[in-house]
Amino acid sequence: MAIKKELNISPVGRVEGDLDVKVYMEDGVVTRAHTQAAMFRGFERIMAGKDPQAGLIVTPRICGICGGSHLYCASSALDTVWKTTLPPNALLLRAIGQATETIQSIPRWFYAIFATDMANKKFANKPLYDEVVRRFAAYVGTSFQQGVVASGRPVEVYAIFGGQWPHSSYMVPGGVMCAPTLKDVTRAHAIMNQFRKDWLESIWLGCSIERYMQIQSWDDLMAWSEENESQRNSDLGLFLRAGIEFGLHKFGQGVGKFIATGTYLHKDHYQKPTIEGRNAALISRSGFYDGKKYHEFDHLQIKEHVNHAWYQDVAAAHPWDEPLPTPLVSQPLEHSDFAGKYSWSKAPRYMDYAAEAGPLARVLMNANPDNLLPHQIYDPLFGDVMEKMGPNIFTRVLARMHEACRLYENIDEWLRQIDLNGEFYIKPEERDGKGFGATEAARGALAHWIEIENGVIKNYQVMAPTTWNVGPNDEKNNPGPIEAALEGTEIEDPHDPVEVGMVARSFDSCLVCTVHAHDQKTGKQLAKFKL
Amino acid sequence: MANVLWLQGGACSGNTMSFLNAEEPTVIDLVTDFGVNILWHPSIGLEIGEQVTQLLRDIIAGTVVCDILVYEGSIIEGPHGTGTMNYFCDRPMKDWVKELAAVSGFVVAIGDCATWGGIPAVEPNPSESTGMQFLKKEKGGFLGAGYTSKGGLPVINIPGCPAHPDWITQILVAISTGRIGDVLLDEYHRPKTFFTDFVQTGCTNVVNFANKIDGGFGKRGNGCLFYEVGCRGPMTRASCNRILWNRHSSKTRANHPCLGCTEPGFPHNDLVKGSIFKTMKYLGVLPQEVPSGNSKLGYYMRAGFEKTMHALEVAVGVEKSHSDGSK
Question: Where does the chain bind Mg(2+) (chain A) (predicted)?
């Protein structure tokens, strides 16, 4: 007879914010999981009735990790309402801010949040375990120290243009506040160069960025990792070998559908910001991938469901049509009713589907063969990796780390393109209306919707990547991506369910965003995804 | 040697992210060289679930000593005082904090949410958020005006949105090395060493302030942000222009108005229309808030004189050097 067991994990830890998870197991394998966002702040309610620019100050503070991304959205949303004109320099400096925040997150997330789990005793019988512990163990691991310290460098560049990181508000409708000088640009180049030399090439890759960027397929990647000792023994080389040895490619599949709102509006293609013109101006493209084919992104296809969230029931609606959330009484994990309401996170759906947001979604969009315009990223690697490996913990980690090299090159190029004789800000005229702004935060699709009436905010809705990933069931009782990804996971030691943490952390869950913006909890029957 | 427990309530994790940027010492130096033992931290702690709950129980029971309780984020009391909008380890976070504060050596509130409520406490304060020992300017907060920790101090407030990493690490080092006696606190329980000078001290625009030259966005080094775009540098105590951010910068050095985030009440004026990146004025001319240490009338008269003198000097071609910017 099967041994059935329930496990309440509160908190999951090393996700940003409070994530609680309930899993149901049969013979040690998760059959069902519920994710619960356990904290509510009500940011959308706070912004209602306030100054139209309140989002520039408030939304970066929804999340201290993705503050620059929220700022990118908040300023963009206002640009579309106020019909601003954006100088190319402003678009460049906003993109640089977004990119430095994301590249910062790459080593910080890998070493501080994710890789310490690979040093968990669960893997002690694996041949590569001793080497993994030597490098990745918390605080004392050699790479942990170098990686965490290096992660502070790119945001120094953010600070040069934005004053500080986290929590600047330097992107404003009409442009940016700063007007950098040559010494700012030179210093930014130098800092990024040090980041490249101190960590990216020396520790992570074991080769030049240029060599790494030649990789086009899974076979190329495998050949790269065996090309020489330097690459084989780099942290990426070790992750590739240990990841497979530890079986990280065998769990955490998810829903198999992906959403990206895209980011980096090209300096020459978005000087007149409109919602309609946004997709074509993106360097890293938006889209929805349903597991078989790509769909053009249309923000009107998004609806939020609240029937399993601790808010007063309203029918699933597009953010412009949603009322401000009215919070209801919540319960702790042990006493939650997962057939009813069980999370502070809402459940976003695209064309009625749950979809995974994050670096894997982004690199999948980059692999879209339709990315033919010169300013659009086309990179086939993850089209191939997904065919060979499917979505799982290993693929998700690889996708995130893969972005570092391209981001480095982008930042370098954009710094060179700043025209010191050009404008940085064009003062806009304030007006009423509806707006939409979006980006890709380090951890995935992020979007803001605003409505301004009589010169104050009437409605403000934030949809964060973790809302996509950790949201609860929808009206049809279909699970969210993390709930789905937990299903089928084998838990070796119920007293140390590290596997649950690894699945959640592979999504780089950030509950602080999700919770303020919406609710965050999930817990319903999980859909199965078969490779 | 000091055991540190770090918890987050109504938080954005911004102070943790700021803390991870610390340089001298780094977070790793703190652990490996300065005797700080992190019992648990939500972003970098290794324990999960029941292991964390057991640690909290052990601290409360006295079997594990917590020398420093660091708290980030607001105390969420909603709805209706229950605190159930923020569960942690299956209880309202506020209930854990109450019991942990009673047994901890020192309590350090980090960031505006923990010190005085911050953005979550802005009207209508949907989560009934408050700070550890203040709500905005009012003393009391969650732990009450009379609270002192076992070490004999009230909650040590390190405000800022976020707090500067050096402000955090230096206070942790002061406690762990037995030098907390050298840290003096001001009326808002802020360490005076960081919060006596104003943000304007060290601002690269201070000459333009003196000459009453207006600045604005997208312009290079040619004006003070106090007059038109709402800079609060002259009335905000913090060392942002003395201990720079991310080693290089500060808001005002990047032409970003100071938001006044180290003073209770941030975001000031509760984000009302006209308060964001605009200097609120009487009669469209006179700033409603004047630099600290000035009477309103005195400031208006001095500023009026300076502005007139400056305009005259510019007209006759005497003074223009300080208002020029260069790429």
Answer: 44, 462, 516
Mutate which of B41, B236, B258, B271 to test chain A, going by most A C-beta atoms within 10 A? Answer: B271
Contacts of B247 in chain A (CB under 8 A): 156, 159
Does A516 contact B12 at a Cβ distance shorter than 8 Å?
yes
Helix, strand, coil: what percent of chain B each, to 5? Answer: 30, 15, 55
Query: DSSP 3-state assignment of B217?
Result: coil
Mean pLDDT, chain B, integer:
93
The verdict on residue B104 lying in a domain is yes
Structure tokens at A382: 């993850």
Q: How far is B293 from chain A (nearest CA, A)?
A: 26
The reply to whether B66 sits in an annotated binding site is no
Interface of B with A in 178-217 (CB under 8 A): 216-217
Among partner residues B16, B18, B44, which is closest to A138 by beta-carbon distance?
B44
**Are B90 and A116 a contacting pair at CB < 8 A?**
no
- Which residues in B lie closer than 8 A to residue A334 (C-beta atoms)? 90
Confidence band for A6, pLDDT divided at 50, 70 and 90: confident
**Any CB–CB contact under 8 A between A167 and chain B?**
yes
The answer to the question of residue B23 being in a domain is yes
The yes-or-no verdict on residue B16 having pLDDT over 60 is yes
**Cβ contacts (< 8 Å) between A78 and chain B: which residues?**
none
Q: Are residues B6 and B137 in the same domain?
A: yes
Phi/psi at A395 (nearest 5 deg)? -65, -40
Q: Which of residues 300-359 of A touch B (CB under 8 A)?
A: 327, 329-334, 344
By the 8 A CB rule, do B236 and B198 touch? yes
CA distance A154 to A194: 9
Instruction: Supply the CATH number for residue B221's domain.
Output: 4.10.480.10
- DSSP string across A8-19: EES---SSBS-E
Q: Could you tell me the two tokens for A181?
A: 């000088």
Cα distances from B251 to residues A159, A177, A186, B324, in angstroms, run: 8, 10, 19, 20
Q: Which two tokens stand for residue A363?
A: 């690199």
Pairwise CA distance, residues A57 & B276, whole Å = 8
Nearest CA-CA partner of A515 in B130, B11, B43: B11
Q: How far is Cα B175 from Cα A181, in angstroms, rounded to an integer?
A: 41
Q: Is residue B201 part of a domain?
A: no
Q: Which residues in chain B are closer than 8 Å to A183, comparing Cβ atoms?
A: none
Would you say B89 is a known binding-site residue?
Answer: no
Write the burial class of residue A413 (CB in 10 Å: 0-12 exposed, 13-18 middle, 19+ buried): exposed
ipTM value for the complex: 0.96
Question: Which of B7, B8, B13, B51 is most worth mutating to test chain A (most A CB atoms within 10 A of its CB)?
Answer: B13
Q: Could you list the residue range(s) of the whole structural domain that residue B10 is in?
A: 2-193
- What are the structural domains, with CATH classification, of chain A? 4-517 (1.10.645.10)
Biggest CA pair distance of chain A: 76
